[in-house]
Amino acid sequence: MSLNIFPVSIHFHLCNFYTLQCHPVGRIGLSGGPVLARRPYVCGAQGEYAGLAAIKAYLNSKGESSRSVCLIPKSAHGTNPASAQMAGMKVQVVEVDKDGNIDLSHLKALVDKHKASLAAMMITYPSTFGVFEERIRDVCDLIHSNGGQVYLDGANMNAQVGLCRPGDYGSDVSHLNLHKTFCIPHGGGGPGMGPIGVKAHLAPFLPSHPVVPMQSVNTSSSLGTISAAPWGSSAILPISWAYIKMMGSKGLVHATEVAILNANYMAKRLEGHYKILFKGRKGFHAPTMSWPVAGTLMIEPTESEDKAEMDRFCDALMGIRQEIADIEEGRMDSRINPLKMAPHSLACISSSNWDRPYSREYAAFPLPFIRPETKFWPTISRIDDIYGDQHLVCTCPPMEVYESPYEEKRASS
Question: In this entry, which stretches build a coiled coil (predicted)?
């Protein structure tokens, strides 16, 4: 996530943007779509649903209501299968190859199998595995040639702003997460926003509203309303507008280039200490890493972090890996060691009772850049891991569980 909300907010308030209305200036150039949906939905998943609803309504208008299969790669953004099911589509999962790209042979097999019922494919580009699909145009062309539409999830738009446009390489619906790439705070500091850009043939089928007339929308063809607030959380939209205007085209391109550079720099520094799951065949790595894969860590430096901060983070991860090696090689006790006993609170360090096989100094300042005047002291020490082990919280299920078994059911009936 880009962490540039603070400086933009300062200018936002100084310049009195309080009565500014949101206009899609510059955003058509970002998405590559000739029509931009002028309803920035209140979250990314709602934008996904709106785009899929438009696709479904478009297919219905052509007498192709039987088209209901949505292909989703394993490398897609995690919300995609849920949105597809909400839109009444049946999910089929596409495998990835050893480099993290969409497996074209498996994709072609699924397209052939569901040719008559193919509605759409949802693609995250670059993917959630951090890979720029080398044959993205071929993927989009394959879907189009078999009667489907392409939905582009913009969760990782931070890696392509100004360098490429989804509409140019084949997207019919292009989704932008303003809370990821365009400066709106994320999560609890949000709310998030998920506007979508669509090609002209889908514009009449965008969601309608019972009170506010929607430009270019054919109310009789639309699948209906998906948001009570037609403009989403409109009060925060000028933040993204101000960010785009302040950065300009050159600034946006530079931010994208730095984000990609930062991610590759961190991946290169850490590759000798941790396994980088996917890099892509050319060695490029987008500003997101392996989120949906169990046992991995997602790192998003974006363009917001400078080299010194990234080096500190990498040094910390490398230090943790060394502590693991000390346990593996018997230099540290397997139960009482700096890794398992961390974090060390101020109360713990200053206690008169210190019975651990490593020094207080190492516990408090394990790396050269951690000093008394800069250290952020944790308020508690290690949580109760045993309690956590005995009260399990389920992880996200694998993508396969979203597959619709309708083919098997139909075959057996």
Answer: none
pLDDT of residue 309: 86
Predicted pLDDT of residue 387? 77
**Topology classification of domain 5-239:** Aspartate Aminotransferase; domain 2 (3.40.640)
CA proximity to 197, closest of 356, 10, 39, 6 = 39
Q: What percent of the chain has pLDDT over 70?
A: 79
| Rounded Cα gap, residues 122 and 279, in angstroms | 21
Burial pattern 258-271, b for ≥16 Cβ within 10 A else e, equals bbbebbbbbbebbe
Mean pLDDT of 162-170: 86
Q: Which residues pair with 96 in a beta bridge?
A: 102
CA distances from 153 to 124, 186, 199 (A): 5, 17, 15
Residue 385 and residue 389: Cα distance in Å, rounded?
Answer: 6
Question: Is omega for the bond preceding 126 within 30 degrees of 0, making it cis?
Answer: yes
Residue 39 corresponds to which tokens in the numbers above?
Answer: 């309803």
Q: How far is CA 232 from the centre of its chain?
A: 20
- Residue 186 — very low, low, confident or very high, per pLDDT cuts 50/70/90? low
Return the number of other C-beta atoms located less than 10 Å from residue 78's C-beta.
15
Helix (H) or strand (E) holding 13: helix 5-14
Nearest by Cα to 256 from 361, 154, 330, 173? 154
> Which of 311, 312, 258, 279 has the alpha carbon at shortest distance from 2?
258
Residue with tokens 């060390």: 344
Global pTM value: 0.74
Helix H or strand E encompassing 385: helix 385-390
Residue 72: both structure tokens together: 């989703």
The neighbour count for residue 394, using CB atoms within 10 Å, is 5
Phi-psi region of 162 (alpha: psi -120 to 50; beta: other; left: phi over 0): left
Phi and psi at residue 318, in whole multiples of 5°? Answer: -70, -35
The CA angle 45-65-34, to the nearest 5 degrees, is: 55
* Residue 356 banded pLDDT, cuts 50, 70, 90: very high
Domain ranges for the chain, please list them: 5-239, 307-381
